[in-house]
Amino acid sequence: SSGINAEYGLAHAEIKQGVRQVIGCKDPGSGKIGLSVESISKGVFVSYVESDSIAAKAGLRFGDQIVQINGESVAGWNKKKTIEFLKKADASQIRFAVRDRPFERTITCVKDSHGHIGFQFKKGKINAIVKDSSAARNGMLTDHFITEIDGQNVVGMSDDKILKVIKSKERTVTVTVMPEFVYDHMVKHLGKSLKKHMDHSEPTEL
User: Fold this and answer.
1) Closest Cα partner for 42 from 85, 102, 84?
2) Residue 20 above 90 pLDDT?
């Protein structure tokens, strides 16, 4: 039912505190995991998850902070060192310790009687907030990029596609946002083709 779907979207969007364990491996064919990273403030962050990849199936998400790989702390590592370490890692099992999207936050918005969500965006960036809307009341800010809708990654999607995702959702929509200065750093090495291959799958099960 639609109510259950909305509840699930909210549950999947939740940014949990603490560190979780993620276990993956390399694709036997390509030898890849299907992710890329960026280093920000001495931390290593997931900047890209390929559609249908091992990383996507293991539950790694755009904006997640990787704190350990195979028990080794990655604090202070740059992108190159992290990728090199992953290349050398045992293909059969790679253990990640991950903190849920620390630069992001979720805002619950309720559509009005016309189906409007209470904010406007251009190229994924929120640039206007409707006065007295639920987005305004719940603390939505401009100069933030939309990264997820009900837990579904929308990074790299066109505005039309993001709008389509919003329209397909129930009256209550959970929007995940990231400040512009962090987002710009995260996506600076992602070309159009990478954004196209980004995991945009809908969450389907808890």
Assistant:
1) 102
2) yes
